[in-house]
Design brief:
The chain is mainly β. It contains 2 helices and 9 strands. The relative contact order is 0.24.
């Protein structure tokens, strides 16, 4: 008999390889900039994701180093909502779309604009 040990991810958020490539290409001519991830109250179910390019993090943001070229600042008030979220970049038809795979979500509105956590 063997015993397997579950080791949870220690990173607040993760990005897929395609998301890393997408954001690195967007920041390649903007040294020092980072991605800032936060939430806002919105929609019929509660919260919406806010993803911005920023020159610097805010004082209470948590910085997640994704790669040597890419850092993501997560807003302090969004940490509990976003913990263990995976950010993906997918192509749908001719469009590129950012997808959030958030295990904390218990409800989403029909249009996918907002979410709620338990």
């Amino acid at each position: 008999m063997s015993v397997e040990t579950f080791v949870p991810s220690t990173k607040l958020i993760t990005l897929t390889d395609s998301a890393v490539k997408h954001f690195e290409s967007k920041l390649k001519d903007k040294p020092g900039q980072l991605i800032r991830l936060s939430t806002k109250v919105s929609g019929c179910t509660g919260y919406a994701y806010v993803l911005d390019f920023a020159d610097s993090a805010k004082a209470d943001d948590e910085i997640v180093e994704i790669s040597p070229l890419l850092n993501v600042a997560v807003a302090a008030d969004a940490i509990d909502l976003l913990r263990n979220t995976e950010i993906d970049y997918v192509t749908e038809g001719v469009n590129g779309v950012i997808k959030y795979n958030n295990p904390n979500v218990v409800d989403e509105c029909g249009c996918g604009e907002s979410f709620n956590v338990g």
